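Revision sheet: structure tokens.
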Amino acid sequence: MTVELPEWLLKNQVEIIGALLGVSYVILSVRQSILTWPAGILTSAFYIFVFLKSGFYAYMGLQVYYVLISLYGWYFWMKGNRKDEKRQSSVGRLNFRSGMILLVFTSLIFVLIHFMLNKFTDSRIPVTDSILTAFSITATWLLARKILENWLLWIMVDAVSAIVFSVKGMWPTSVLYFIYTVLAVSGFLKWKKSMIRNG
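Predicted:
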């Protein structure tokens, strides 16, 4: 086993580095740190390669979206809905109308991704990949806008993803998504407390 471990680490070094960066990304987002976004960009850069190699094509495309939305989130957290110029944007809530619009948008994204995976790729799990990717797109947009409910979506996405990646033998990524799930629960509770405190 001592011989196999270094070989395994060498073989999976990109996935391991991406996983470590991913943990730092979520910890920083829970803390509402502006460094969330550069960490997210680096994480996505590593995972474009990881998911391409593993055949998770929708997840790979999602990483490109993450890079773009990270640039938007970076800007919004610095310049967004601030009332006080010396403070970053505050945490908000998702209203019913916006929630319904996002549900329709997420459903349309799912249909589009599922069609593309079936038509143009050899994806092994097109339905699961499409569902998780569609909800991840919505959750990341909510995170960029500092909407509390982003964490509820992430809890669902991350928990299911952890199971999917473990079944596929992608252990560093599976552990990463398990950690994501725990941190998403923490993020929801801390952001809710922050929102109440800032009233």
